[in-house]
Every structure is written in C-alpha cells, then in structure tokens.
Amino acid sequence: MAENIYLDNAATTPILPEVLEAMRVCYEESFANPSAIHTVGVKARYEISKARETVAQAINADPEEIFFTSGGTESDNLAIQGVWFLSDKASRKKICHSAIEHHAVLDTCQFLAKQGAEVHSLPVGSDGKVLVKEAFERIDYRTLLVSVMHSNNETGVIQPVEEIGAICKKQGAIFHVDAVQSFGKIPLDVEKLQCDLLSISAHKIYGPKGVGCLYVREGTPISPILHGGGQEKGLRSGTLNTQGIVGFGKAVDIVMNDFTSENERLTSLRDRLVQRALSEIEDVELCGDAKDRLPNNVQLMFKGLEGETLVLELDRLGVFASSGSACSSESKEVSHVLQAMGIPKEWARGALRLTLGRWTSCSDVDRTLESLVRIARNIRKLNKN
Ligand SMILES: Cc1ncc(COP(=O)(O)O)c(C=O)c1O
To answer: In angstroms, what is the span from residue 206 Cα to ligand 1's centroid?
Structure first.
C-alpha cells in the first residue's frame, strides 16, 4: 500500500517533531504564568522573549514591534479594528482592501462598514494580482487603512505589495499586510514592504495552531480589541500562550535556517508538477501568474470538472488536496478570488489546489500527477456517456 501524500499545506502544515519537543519541554519547565515574578515565571518570560526576537529577526523588525495573538484571524482583526477604533473618523474613514483578501480581512471590513467605515475593494487582473493603477486611483488623502495580502491563499499569487506600500506612504494611509501564506516561504522585510502592520500565523509554517503575531510598526495608532490583564503592552490582553509561542519560535528558527534551499527545492517540484499537468492532461490551466507565485502552490483548473470531485477521487488514492472552487467546504459557489479574477465558471468550478511542503518528494509529485491524469480521463469519459 502506497503512503499517503499530503498536499494541503496552505490549509495547515503538520507540526515539526523539533517543535513538538520544544513545546513538551516548555510544558514541563516553563509552565508558570509568564507575568509571575517568581523563577518559573521569569523562565517562561525569557522563553517568550527569545521567540519574539526570532520572529522579529525573520521580518527585519524590532522585537518590541511583535505582538503575539491566537493566529492570523485575530491578527487581521486586531490590525483593522484596532486602527479603526482609534482613528479620527472626521478626516479619514476610508478602508481599502483587495478583492481577494481572506475572509478574516473581508468580513472585518464589512463589520466596520456597518459602523460607518467607507469600504472599497481594489480589483485584481486575470493573473490574480492587484491592479496597481487602480489602487493608485482609489487610495487617497481620505484613506485611513489599506489591507492587501502578501500572497493569496488560493492561487498563491504574490501581490505588488511594495508598490502599494509606497502609495500608502504618499497618502499617509496605514498599511496592513496579511502575510499568513508568504511568511516562511519567501523573504519578507517590513522596511522594504513599507507596511505598518503585518499578520503571521504559526500553523502555516509547521508550528502549532492557535498562535501567531501581529507586527506593529512603532508609533502606529492602534487600540486593543481585547481588554483585560494588559499583556503585550496593553494591546493584547490574555495570559500568553507560552507553549504555543515557544513552538512558533522554534518553527521560525527551522524554516529560516534552510529557507533558500527549501525555496529552490519547492520551486522546482512546483514547476515539474505544473509542466507535467499542462502537457499530459487535456483542458487544464494554471490559475494565476506562473512566476510570481509561492514556491509551493499549484492551483490547476480543469475545464468542465468539479474541484470537489477531484479532491474526493484523489483522497481515495491517498492524495490530500483542496478544492479552490468553494468559498468554504460547505459552499458550492465559485470562490470570491476566482470571481474577482474574472475566471469563467466552467473553469473556476474545476479548481484544484495542490500545496507542497517540507515532506513532499519528487515521487509524490509524479504519483499525484499520474493519479490526476487517470482521474480526469475517467471522469471525462463518464461525462461523455
Ligand atoms: C491569507 C490568510 N489570512 C488569514 C488566515 C487565518 O489564519 P488562522 O488560521 O491562523 O486564523 C489564513 C488561513 O488560512 C490565510 O490563508
């Protein structure tokens, strides 16, 4: 029996054994409340400060600018709501986001629209990239906040974030970048991006679930959305998740250590999978820009097929992927991302996202491809009859 192949690393990654071990040690030795002044509390605090430094270094930030949260969703909410609550709505109440943001951003903006924010969606082209010219026209002196993701969670397409950062700077708008998918896969530097806020989640980089952070550039006007014990300099109350944070720090350590070689390895596997799919399967296309995309993302579209059917057929063969066509597992609608790219429904419905990871081998890629060739051929034959 062949081994299973996990190709859903954009949804979440398996935890690294070294991360698990660091967390186990932390549960045993640094279990105390990190706010406590006794020795065990001090030890927990020290472990957290080490992780804070590691995360900060990975994005060229100062450790003082890292605020631990429960993950990407909370970081996005804190960034957007936190800026809105403290803002002077008389002068700036416009919030711009890209049309392809994660729901953690989209729904937060919609929530604020009900509270008086003027929310604008920035369009993307058929390559899945935010149109810089449109962004330039829409972001103005009345714009409070702009939120654009670093790379998209469905297509893996990397966004023109530096250009948008420059526009924000010129207009005096606060710039938030959701880097949940990019962090640990491609280089990120908050200075180059010219961003004020940046969201990260640990479970996308072989760390534990339920932990992440928000980078907040010093001096950014932001208020807390959770109130309580005043942890994280009052911006994020709640007893710190020491074990999660230690695991997060360890995961960052590991992924940054072999960053370049892993990036190159994944890029070559990704390109192999894309090339073979395009040449060996009929009526299949790569979704979004072929070059400016995450090294581990292959989103294919099979004309006339259902992405969900492909996922289930692959599952029967021990290959775990994801359908890019549905907004959520319950929804049959074409995703807002593919809609925004203007992809015709007959293609968008057949979207299949394969996201590679540290354990993906060349033979995994080949076996997946060969399975897909057979599955697509069989379904199309059945559909004809
Ligand atoms: C781009 C993006 N933002 C935010 C999130 C939410 O992160 P979390 O699962 O840590 O809440 C995800 C998760 O898939 C994501 O892909």
So the answer is: 14
123: amino acid identity, one letter: P
Helix (H, G, I), strand (E, B) or coil at 323: strand
How far apart, in whole angstroms, are the C-alpha atoms of residue 324 and residue 44? 41
Per-residue pLDDT of the chain (385 residues; tens, 9 = 90+): 679 999 999 999 999 999 999 999 999 999 999 999 999 999 999 999 999 999 999 999 999 999 999 999 999 999 999 999 999 888 999 999 999 999 999 999 999 999 999 999 999 999 999 999 999 999 999 999 999 999 999 999 999 999 999 999 999 999 999 999 999 999 999 999 999 999 999 999 999 999 999 999 999 999 999 999 999 999 999 999 999 999 999 999 999 999 999 999 999 999 999 999 999 999 999 999 999 999 999 999 999 999 999 999 999 999 999 996 554 555 567 899 999 999 999 999 999 999 999 999 999 999 999 999 999 999 999 988 7
73 alpha carbon to ligand 1 midpoint, in Å?
A: 6
Ligand 1: centre distance to CA 29 (Å): 30
Which of 148, 183, 201, 329 for mutating ligand 1's site (highest number of atoms within 8 Å of CB)?
A: 201
Phi and psi dihedrals of 215, rounded to 5? -80, 130
Q: How far is 310 from 316, CA to CA, in rounded Å? A: 10
Task: Give the integer Cα–Cα distance in Å for 126 and 52.
Answer: 38
Please report the atom of ligand 1 found closest to the CA of residue 74: 11
The answer to whether residue 327 is catalytic is yes
Domains of the chain: 17-257 (3.40.640.10), 258-384 (3.90.1150.10)
CA distance 61 to 305: 45
Q: What is the DSSP letter of 30?
A: S
**CA 61 to ligand 1 centroid distance, Å:** 21
Q: Which of 96, 195, 287, 327 is catalytic?
A: 327
pTM above 0.85, yes or no: yes
Pocket of ligand 1 (CB under 6 A): 71-73, 76, 102, 104, 149, 153, 178, 180-181, 201, 203, 212
Q: Which atom of ligand 1 is nearest to the CA of 152?
A: 1
For the record, the structure tokens of 45 come out as 């605090």
